[in-house]
Amino acid sequence: MAGSQREFKARIKSTQSLKKIFRAMELIAATRISKARTAVDQARPYARAISRAISSVAVHSDIDHPLTSERAEKTGRAAILVITADRGMAGAYSANALRESERLRERLQKDGKEVVQFVLGRRGVSYFKFRNRPVAKSWEGDSDRPEVSVAQEVAGTLLEHFLNDEPGQGVDEIHIVYTRFTSMVTQDPFVLRMLPIEVVEGVAVTKDEIEPLYELEPSAEEVLDALLPRYIESRVYSCMLQAAASELAGRQRAMNTAVKNADDVITNYTRLANTARQDEITQEISEIVSGADALAASA
């Protein structure tokens, strides 16, 4: 029984060490998530303003811009960018995004389209590498702290593929699969068709806002040429910020659960160690009594 007691104490010690790591990761995620939520809120006004500007220009002009209309010559290819985490211990965050990406892939393939895969995040890269699936391009780094430079590079790469007219090189449409941050307890995987842009008339405004009127100089086409790349960069960066906030929320929640589970394991092993100690004491007392009885009988 003494051996079992030592084993239980060793497990308690190792679980306590893991608990400290889980607690530290929970605190780090809690510290970073406030900054991530602030970044999401700060990016919304710019994204809203540029979306309204593009919608107004596209609706009130008679031009067919390549980014707002379907390709004349179809390539039969569609690009998917899936945003995942660089690190684990975030619950089902990356798995949910990848699962939604697989559903989108199936829908596109049923429509007879070839899928061109792009990945942002080390977990997604590992997922496709394990399954021997080709990835056109991937990006890895601080997924929970997105950089504008990375968003610009991603947007430029996607735009380059969309505008490529070479046979077997271009794509007809581009989709982004990311996790949309709603609240600390709700983060849902979401599919956004980024290109071609779906422009609708009547951009939503609040009661206190007046829909702006734009004077286009030198022309609507040149204005769209300048605005649309910035629009795509802002959408990609916004998706990355949403995904970062969702990742941190998932990691905080997962680490909080891990700490609670570690407490349960420690309590269970402590109870087992105490039981083993009591059994050991009882056995020693029984041996002493048996030895005393044997000496008394021999005398």
Commentary on this structure:
With 299 residues, the protein is α/β, with parallel strands linked by helices. It has a single domain, classed as Pyruvate Kinase, Chain: A, domain 1 (3-Layer(aba) Sandwich). The protein is 60% helix and 12% strand. It has a five-stranded mixed beta sheet with strand order 3-2-1-4-5, sandwiched between helices. Helix 3 links the parallel strand 2 and strand 3. Helix 1 runs antiparallel to helix 5 and helix 4 crosses helix 5.
Note the main attributes of this structure.
five-stranded mixed sheet, 299 residues, alpha/beta, Pyruvate Kinase, Chain: A, domain 1, 60% helix, 5 helices
- Residue-averaged pLDDT, rounded? 83
Quick one: biggest sheet?
5 strands, mixed
Principal-axes geometry comes out as elongated
What's the arrangement of strands in the largest beta sheet? 3-2-1-4-5
- Class based on secondary structure composition and strand pairing: alpha/beta
CATH topology type: Pyruvate Kinase, Chain: A, domain 1
Number of separate domains: 1
Alpha carbon gap, first and last residue: 32 Å
CATH top level is: Alpha Beta
Task: Please describe the topology of this protein.
Blueprint: H1 2-59, E1 77-83, H2 93-110, E2 114-120, H3 122-130, E3 137-139, H4 148-163, E4 173-181, E5 187-195, H5 220-298
Parallel strand pairs: 1-2, 1-4, 2-3
Antiparallel strand pairs: 4-5
Helix pairs in contact: 1-5, 4-5
